[in-house]
Amino acid sequence: MKNLKKISFLAFIMAFVFSCANMKTNNAVTGKVDAIESGKDGYTAKITTDAKEVYFATISIVNLGGPEHYKKIKIGDQVSLKGEIWKTDDENHIKVTEIVSVK
């Protein structure tokens, strides 16, 4: 009986961990750069999509995999970004892992 309780508890914990890990999604965001705020090893860009959704994109050398993948974008650029998307109560965020295009 003790083993059954331990196994059930372990299964519950594993299910919880896997469900939390899947809350973040890897997707793409395409839109216009409205603002840029510089940080320590990169910057945060405010992106507005065609559907009028606003995303705050964290773009850093580390998250992009090194300086060879890092690009500086400008206000007014049309960008397509890939990365890990998550939402807070009132904001959308993306941790950029790839800059697909800048126009």
TrEMBL record:
Q: What is the annotated signal peptide range for this record?
A: 1-21
Keyword annotations: Signal
The identity of this protein, by name, is DUF5666 domain-containing protein
